[in-house]
């Protein structure tokens, strides 16, 4: 098994470590690679799109030839986890800020996102989350996180915080407003690996 983390900007190293810990906990033999070139995508069986700055990541995906392969892989059933900025990029609809900045979304999930809905960096917070299918609460870390305003079609909300959707799943695709890689809890990374 080989997992790939899009490593163009943002919290990529933390996702690499979280996936390595998840593999250990699942007793799975595998490798985690930092993906920066299209040829690296060819060998991975799942992908993480990390948090960071969604406009920057979108532009780099296009400039480096990664955008189309990621879209194709998502449509072909390759498991993808998008966190924070990655959540924004997986969406098919964005807010005014997405439009104003010319951010090209991957258009893979039937959901609309509101970028930076939880405010600026100084408004960051932690909150225990009840995620559908998990017995125990998950430690949610929100740093300038988006909100999933609505879902439709095959996209289903899995978690809300104070009435706002912060996690959704559509078939092989997972999106979170929060940063699971910044916790010691590997359950979401295990969920991604378990889709294989």
Summarize the structure.
The protein is an alpha/beta fold. Helix content is 29%, strand content 30%.
Descriptive overview:
The chain has 196 residues and is of the alpha/beta class. It has one domain: Class I glutamine amidotransferase (GATase) domain (Rossmann fold), CATH 3.40.50.880. It has seven helices and twelve strands. The longest helix is centred in the first third of the chain and has 15 residues, at 12-26.
Spell out the key features of this protein.
single chain; alpha/beta; Rossmann fold; 7-stranded mixed sheet; 3-stranded mixed sheet; 30% strand
CATH topology: Rossmann fold
The helix content is: 25-40%
Query: In angstroms, what separates the terminal alpha carbons?
Result: 9 Å
CATH superfamily: Class I glutamine amidotransferase (GATase) domain
The count of helical stretches stands at 7
Question: What would you report as the Rg, rounded to the nearest angstrom?
Answer: 15 Å
Instruction: Describe the global form.
Output: globular
Output mean pLDDT: 95
Which CATH first-tier class would you pick? Alpha Beta
Content-based structural category: alpha/beta
Indicate the proportion of strand residues.
25-35%
**Any low-confidence stretches, pLDDT <50, length ≥5?**
none
> What is the name of the CATH architecture?
3-Layer(aba) Sandwich
**Main sheet record:** 7 strands, mixed
Q: What's the structural domain tally?
A: 1
Query: How many runs of DSSP E, i.e. beta strands?
Result: 12
């Amino acid at each position: 098994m080989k997992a790939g983390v899009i490593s163009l900007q943002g919290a990529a190293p933390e996702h690499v470590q979280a996936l390595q810990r998840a593999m250990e906990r699942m007793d799975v033999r595998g490798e985690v690679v930092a993906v920066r070139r299209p040829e690296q995508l060819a060998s991975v069986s799942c992908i993480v799109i990390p948090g960071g700055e969604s406009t920057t990541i979108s532009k780099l995906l296009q400039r480096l030839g990664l955008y189309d392969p990621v879209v194709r892989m998502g449509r072909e059933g390759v498991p993808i986890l998008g966190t924070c900025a990655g959540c924004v990029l997986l969406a098919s609809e964005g807010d005014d800020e997405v439009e104003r900045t010319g951010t090209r979304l991957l258009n893979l999930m039937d959901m609309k996102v509101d970028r930076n809905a939880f405010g600026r960096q100084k408004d960051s917070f932690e909150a225990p989350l009840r995620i559908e299918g998990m017995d125990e609460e998950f430690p949610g870390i929100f740093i300038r996180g988006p909100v999933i305003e609505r879902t439709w079609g095959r996209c289903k909300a899995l978690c809300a915080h104070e009435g706002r959707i912060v996690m959704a799943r559509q078939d092989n695709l997972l999106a979170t407003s929060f940063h699971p890689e910044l916790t010691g809890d590997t359950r979401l990374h295990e969920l991604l690996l378990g889709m294989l």
